[in-house]
Amino acid sequence: MAALVGFLMTMTACAQTQQSKESKPENMDKGKKVLVAYFSATGTTKAVAEDLAKVMDATLFEIEPNEKYTSADLDWQDDKSRSSIEMHDPNSRPAVKNKVDDIAQYDVVFIGYPIWWYIAPTIINTFIDENNLDGKKVYCFATSGGSPIGPCVDALKKQYPDIDWQEGKLLNHASKETLEAWKQEIGL
Question: Which of 22, 72, 154, 176 is 20–30 Å from 80 (CA)?
Answer without folding.
Answer: 154
